[in-house]
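Researcher: Dear colleague, please comment on this protein.
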Amino acid sequence: MDVIASLQNQIVHAHRLVDATMEGITDDQFSWMPPGTVNPIQAAFIHTVAGEDFFIQGILQGKSRLWETQCWGAKIGLEQPPGRGGDWAAVKNCALSLGPMLEYQTEVRAATDSYLAALDPAELGKPANFPGYPRPVTVGDVLVILAGHIAFHAGEISAVKGVQGAKGLPY
């Protein structure tokens, strides 16, 4: 297996983990606000999808996110998705519908698949501008970080789902 195929597999498996965790979720579970400082599932989910959008479109391609170019904020009912260091209050204090967020996820994943399908292995070692990251990173690093980011938040979603008495992870 080559490096690109390995990175694609990591991201595919992370996507599958999110999908399995989100299986059967209701709108009430999706927007339920847990006690303490934990984020509701809707916040973790939209952050995960928007993060992938930012990693692939913004960091790796230097383009605007699909969030802006396809007007997902208006479709979802959220001005900005929650990001690192940003204000998460807007997404914590409202009830959002899962349907439009799943549509956004479909578009983001298609863009990720397209990017990876066209990626030349020689690009993996090139520097990437990852704002706020504590060390210089390469394109390959960003893709590894992305796979981890998706999987980490699948675990977060699973935990919040489990606190609600539902099955989180599929195993």
